Amino acid sequence: MHGTAALIGIDWGTTSFRAYRIGADGSVLETKAAPAGILKVPDGDFEAVLEREIGPWLAAAPALPMVVSGMITSRQGWLEVPYCPCPAGSAELAGALREHATRAGRRLHFVPGLSLIGGDGVPDVIRGEETQIIGELAGEREGERGRQAIVLPGTHSKWAFVEDGRIVWFATFMTGEVFAVLKEHSILGRLMAGDAFDEAAFARGLSYARAGPGGLLRRLFSARTLGLFDQLPASAIASYLSGLLIGSEIVEALDCLPEAPGAREITVIGHSELALRYRGAIDAAGFRARTGSVDASPRGQLLIARAAGLIA
Questions:
Q1: So what's the pLDDT on residue 286?
Q2: Which of 85, 144, 167, 214 keeps 20 to 30 A from 233, CA to CA?
Q3: pTM
Q4: For 200, what's the count of Cα atoms within 13 Å in the CB-facing half-sphere?
Q5: Which residues are CB-neighbours of 107 under 8 A, at least 6 positions away?
Q6: Dihedral through CA 204, CA 205, CA 207, CA 211, nearest 10?
């Protein structure tokens, strides 16, 4: 093991498990990742998975505080933690931590998700992304960046607006899941062939998402007709549909934000191929995409641990 850790942070999602040994300055000293998401844990024995994946860390420093975030705190996870109402920052999340002792006597602190009741009376939730957003703010010193818009691409993309170090608004867009359903289970997928990314087709989808009257439901069928009329090859239709959906998401998200992004800048948290596409799509929409910290999650866990008094 390298360096002296102040905290163990665990980001435990639906499909993956990530653990971090975190230094007092927020640096990640060591990372452990495994395809051991909450839906892949036999008989719900999360404690066994924890010991299997980071047992040596725990044995070397049994008293080290542990902060756990992600879907592990959901109803399908290890311990369901009630949502913390928005607006919220590190202090509110720290105040809503749920402590749990394992059979081996190890103490874990589970981070709640966030809930928001919109102006239309409809609730929305996030779980795991709140820690990443707080960590992104910590990368610039919490609150220093004032107001900003943040997006976390994924199967369910999350857009958030933060002000003075607190998340004051967020919204979920089911873009990735809708893409998968349309591709695999609708007529739009019948003409598609291959999974290679076609940048020109993706850009065409982005452009059409912002063009002319009507909305997404009117434009979706173009993913079929452009193929029927040989304006798109079969190998490019999936990329076109992806661009159309992501472009539509950006249009809707910007319309929902409480106010326009400061300096027309939007922070994209994530370093996957999907996050890269989002950055390109945001630039194409006339905004400036800023790349978020690669260590947003462990930084957020450290900030929450400090606010809770778990570490100095």
A1: 95
A2: 214
A3: 0.93
A4: 5
A5: 65, 66, 99, 100, 101
A6: 130
